[in-house]
Design brief:
The complex is a heterodimer of chains A (about 350) and B (about 210). Chain A has eight helices and 17 strands. Chain A has about 350 residues and is an alpha+beta fold. In chain A, strands 1-2-5-3-6-7 form a six-stranded mixed beta sheet, with helices on both faces. A six-stranded mixed beta sheet of chain A has the order 10-9-8-15-13-14. A three-stranded antiparallel beta sheet of chain A has the order 4-16-17. In chain A, helix 4 packs antiparallel against helix 5. Chain B has about 210 residues and is mainly alpha-helical. Chain B contains nine helices and two strands, in the order βαααααβαααα. Chain B starts with a strand and ends with a helix. At the A-B interface, helix 3 of A face helix 4 and helix 5 of B. The complex binds adenosine-5'-triphosphate and magnesium ion.
């Protein structure tokens, strides 16, 4: 393993320290427990948006803390979910009284830790709601698995709901919008190489020179299929089909009822994309793939969308939700409407995403 | 009858056993998970050992609740909230006691497992820690009704937990990270069921001492 690290046990802490030193005007970092908040938190009268998850996906989530996006981010160890005391303390730090929305990627560890945190925050009198992001079309069935994983759509949900909170949406409205954007989004990822978790010291899986993994998550886990290496057009066509031609997806999610102080089940079904849809197209690097190759992916993706009568209204291209140094990419398509486009275009000023501000 | 001293020694033994089996549990988790279960559990119980001396003088319920809170804030992953909830609920179930009857012990474990059920919502044969606890509780309840002594009751429960743990091998995981492997999860023993068995066995060994 060759990495720019000191002691593997201090990787996350030292990276947070560097971030705090670099951007004292934008963010504040808390170390015991770990969380990152906007320098101006809590923002009076505004719903606070918190996300979190394992480290190793930078700039997500800490890099999305700031005006128009997240109020707080809770980083776990590399690829390990954070613990409830982090989300609970972070909620206390960012809540202005308008309540806190947790945006949770669907991994059992993240889900259970955020659920525990929601109960702790509620017991403390903080208004809290929690919405799952589960957009990974590589997972086909929800009955015999823990359901679709949260991947690329997370970035889009955080941007749009962050802007809505900034515009004065209340907690329930933010939660409804988050749920909608997630249900409008689907993603698929591929890997050309594995990645090395510092604590493990060796690549998570072996991938030959002539192979690639199709349908990966964001933790270096192997994908749905291992295939012989192909051209960018062939790979992109496969990825586009996995997203654009994916059928309706149904699952039961658990949401928090802030009035009753209990969890309740919700049945949700995502509808397939259809001709006439307008989308945000997000082409993301897993960390090791250069932006130039992402444009080659985008070129083919645009053609695939056009062939199906799907119009790309906006795009985002670059490394935003990564898997350490893995070579590979993901594509995410999110159907848009006027509300979504308005908040996508709204100003955002974070370390990782910035426009209009 | 179980004394407070024995409960403390059970926690100490659990910490020692989890440390000794750290690599074993992590190896099990690398086959069907993300190779961190042993590290997670060892980190959590090390923290419990640091905390324990500060609550020695409190009642059993408080000691267990402190154990739960400590696990919740130090283990992470899926097993942190699950085991954390287990100890929180078991502590609440027996509240301010200084010693436990065999029935109290059953109440404690049952409440803990109820907590795992509420948090993770596992079904039987989903290939999780619940597959060790469910048969253990059932066996323990049966043994209690026949009037066996504490050691025999626990021996019955541990034997059932061990069988339940082994029964996870041919199962396909339907919960947690392992579920994404589909059929590839078949043929491996569930790490969480294994740590649960080790924990219950540590209780038996403590009582036998
Ligand atoms: N929903 C669930 N209900 C009960 N037990 C579960 C559930 N999901 C997972 N488990 C148990 O948790 C064990 C895995 O725990 P571990 O500490 O490795 O967390 P993890 O799944 O790797 O979390 P993360 O993905 O955040 O790293 C499994 O072996 C299983 O017994
Ligand atoms: Mg694990």
């Amino acid at each position: 393993m060759k990495k720019l690290i000191n002691d593997v046990d201090n990787v996350v802490r030292e990276q947070l320290e560097g971030m705090a030193l670099a951007h004292p005007d934008a963010i504040k970092v808390n170390y015991d427990p770990y969380f990152v908040v906007r320098a101006d938190a809590p923002v009076e009268g505004k719903v606070a948006i918190i996300s979190g998850g394992g480290s190793g996906h930078e700039p997500m989530h800490g890099g999305f803390v700031g005006m128009g996006m997240l109020d707080g981010a809770c980083p776990g160890e590399v690829f390990t979910s954070p613990t409830p005391d982090q989300m609970y303390e972070c909620a206390k730090a960012v809540d202005s009284g308008a309540g806190v929305l947790f945006l949770v990627k669907n991994y059992t560890g993240d889900v259970l830790n955020f659920e525990t945190a929601a109960e702790l925050a509620y017991a403390d009198g903080i208004k809290v709601q929690s919405i799952l992001v589960d957009d990974d079309a590589a997972v086909k069935d929800s009955l015999y698995t823990a359901g679709r994983r949260g991947v690329g759509a997370t970035v889009i949900v955080e941007k749009i709901v962050g802007a809505a909170a900034e515009a004065g949406y209340n907690l329930g409205q933010c939660a409804d919008l988050a749920r909608k954007v997630n249900m409008y989004g689907r993603s698929i990822g591929i890997a050309l190489t594995s990645c090395t978790v510092p604590a493990a010291g060796k690549p998570t899986f072996d991938l030959g020179d002539g192979e690639f993994e199709f349908g990966i998550g964001i933790h270096g886990e192997p994908g749905r299929q291992r295939l012989p290496m192909k051209s960018v057009d062939e790979i992109t066509a496969m990825m586009a089909a996995a997203v654009l031609d994916d059928e309706a997806y149904s699952r039961t999610v658990r949401e928090w009822d802030n009035e009753e102080g209990t969890w309740f089940d919700k049945e949700l079904t995502d509808e397939p994309f259809k001709s006439g849809d307008s989308v945000i197209a997000f082409v993301n690097s897993m960390g090791g793939t250069p932006v130039s190759e992402l444009y080659a992916v985008y070129r083919k993706l645009a053609a695939e969308c056009e062939a199906r009568g799907v119009k790309i209204a906006r795009n985002l291209i670059g490394p935003y939700i990564t898997s350490l140094e893995m070579q590979g990419c993901s594509i995410t398509l999110v159907k848009t409407d006027d509300e979504i486009l308005k908040f996508w275009d709204a100003p955002v000023n974070t370390l990782g995403l910035r426009w209009g501000a | 009858m179980i004394t407070k001293d024995q409960i403390v020694r059970w926690l100490e033994k659990t910490a020692a056993v989890l440390q000794a089996n750290k690599t074993y549990l992590t190896d099990l988790d690398s086959a069907i998970g993300d190779a961190d279960h042993g590290t997670n559990m060892d980190r959590g119980f090390k923290k419990v050992m640091e905390k324990l001396p500060t609550v020695f003088d409190n009642d059993i319920g408080n000691i267990l609740k402190t154990t739960g809170m400590t696990l919740i804030s130090s283990v992470g992953g899926a097993s942190g909230p699950l085991y954390g909830t287990f100890f929180m609920r078991s502590g609440m179930a027996i509240a301010a006691k200084e010693e436990l009857s065999d029935e109290d012990l059953f109440t404690l474990l049952q409440a803990g497992v109820e907590g795992i059920l509420q948090r993770g919502r596992p079904n039987l044969e989903d290939k999780t820690m619940y597959d060790a606890w469910a048969p253990a509780l059932e066996a323990m309840q049966g043994a209690l009704s026949t009037g066996m002594g504490t050691v025999e009751v626990l021996e019955t429960a541990v034997a059932a937990a061990e069988q339940g743990m082994k029964n996870t091998i041919p199962l396909q995981a339907r919960k947690g990270r392992a579920s994404y492997l589909g059929e590839r999860s078949i043929g491996h023993q569930d790490p969480g069921a294994t740590s649960s068995y080790l924990m219950l066995n540590a209780l038996l060994e403590t009582v036998k001492e």
